[in-house]
Amino acid sequence: MSSSEKTPAKGLATRLAHMGRYPKEFHGFVNPPVVHASTVLFPDTKTMLSGAQTYHYARRGNPTTNALEDAVAELEGAHGAHLAPSGLGAVSLALLSAVSSGDHLLVTDSVYGPTRNLAEKMLKRMGVEVDYYDPTIGAGIAELFKPNTRAVMTEAPGSLTFEMQDLPAIVEAAHARDALVVMDNTWATPVYFDAIGHGVDLSVQAGTKYLVGHSDAMLGTVAASERAWERLDETYGALGMHVAPDDVYLGLRGLRTLKVRLERHMESGLEIARWLEGRPEVSRVRHPGLESDPGHALWARDFTGASGLFAFDFTDDVTFEQSCAFLDALELFGLGYSWGGFESLAIPVRLKGARTATPVPGNASIRLHIGLEDTADIRADLEAGFAALRG
Ligand SMILES: *Cc1c(COP(=O)(O)O)cnc(C)c1O
Q1: 103 and 61 both lie in a single domain
Q2: Catalytic residue among 15, 21, 150, 209
Q3: Which one of 109, 166, 184, 247 is the catalytic residue?
Q4: Residue 140, domain member (yes or no)
Q5: How many distinct structural domains can be found in the chain?
Q6: Pocket test residue of 205, 338, 367 for ligand 1, highest count of atoms within 8 A of CB
Q7: Is 10 a known active-site residue?
Q8: Per-block average pLDDT, block size 10, for the chain (391 residues)?
Q9: 317 is catalytic
Q10: Which domain does 323 fall in, by range?
Q11: Would the CB of 64 count as within 6 Å of ligand 1?
Q12: For residues 80 and 219, what is the distance between their CA atoms, to the nearest angstrom?
């Protein structure tokens, strides 16, 4: 029995310290062992053929992977959870379990770019019809349903542009038509948005980001509601998804500090976002935790916090090339894509041409991940970037 099963009513920080740990099963050691395995032995043919033994073959799980799957299922309040070798692997696993040939899939226009690529290159080839919708559509999504619409892909806030989505309204419209709602919840994590509790059927996290939290492993998780679980479990087994135990262990280790790290990312992120709002070179800060953000009311209603990832747009007179000069002047911020680690990162964003359903107004934009460094140093680095903007 897990320690968490004995303490169901405890607070989130307490549960994060205990979920997915079974010290009594491992001679009292606090953490589960890292099990390097393929073959599992059986004592006799009767046991082998009965299927009654907990583990049969490491592809379907071992004590290390089960510890993290149990913890993710508990953290998400889900019926069950599976791991994937990357966040994109988790998106693939969720979508392949939700749609089949001949089905129609609705995808938010603000979706993570590689998820759009999966839909365009793979799902369409396999006979899935895909349409993109305005991320701010809310209950209006009902009008986009066709008789064969089986799933709605959501992500809030959106990748690069940070639009919020009215998830309860989308869930209501989808469930009324017996369609599943899939959500990429990487930005908030289940700590700041209870996706399953809001009716999402398949909640995806790129564990590479905040769960692992130290830029040293790739991981994905998919948690399912009761009605989505059977197909997720079946698809997971069929695809042969497996994550190496050392990486799973890094996910388990990151989990223990997820809440305290997120609190700091949120606090520092909001401080820097507010400071950027006051800069003359900045026309807009894309952060739903700011009162000025168009998605703020939805964020305040449904989310309990914000992570450290957001973007800002330069005023229209700043060219894309000048925004690159800003980035090249940064010393503390790294130029890199995968965020969620302890360090601050920045990337250039081209808003034009990123969408198919809805145009995105704006010029040169920069996405920032605010890490765990001192905010005075983060600000000083950004000031150097602004100084370099005009050459
Ligand atoms: C990074 C990211 C992913 C993909 O995660 P990987 O582990 O890099 O494959 C998926 N969704 C979002 C929103 C992300 O930011």
Answers
A1: yes
A2: 209
A3: 184
A4: yes
A5: 2
A6: 338
A7: no
A8: 54 96 95 96 96 93 97 98 98 98 98 97 98 98 98 97 97 98 98 98 98 98 98 97 97 98 98 98 97 98 98 94 96 97 96 82 90 98 95 71
A9: no
A10: 258-390
A11: no
A12: 17
In the chain, the N- to C-terminal Cα span, in Å, equals: 63
Same domain as 152, residue 112 = yes
Known active-site residue 184: yes
The answer, as to whether pTM is greater than 0.70, is: yes
Query: Looking at the structure, do residues 248 and 269 belong to the same domain, yes or no?
Result: no
**What number does the ligand 1 atom closest to the CA of 207 have?**
7
Read off the tokens for 13. 């920080």
Asked whether residue 340 is domain-assigned, the answer is yes
Q: Using CA atoms, how far apart are residues 174 and 177, in angstroms rounded to an integer?
A: 5
Q: How far is the CA of 54 from the centre of ligand 1 (A)?
A: 32
- Given ligand 1 and candidates 115, 209, 215, 309, which is best to mutate, with the most ligand atoms within 8 Å of its CB? 209
* Beta strands, E only, 25-136: 80-84, 104-108, 129-133
Q: Domain check: are 273 and 151 in the same one?
A: no
Do residue 29 and residue 155 come from a single domain? yes
Same-domain status, 374 and 281: yes
DSSP 128-181: -EEEEE-TT-GGGGGGG--TTEEEEEEESSPTTT-----HHHHHHHHHHTT-EE
Residue 144: give its domain's CATH number: 3.40.640.10
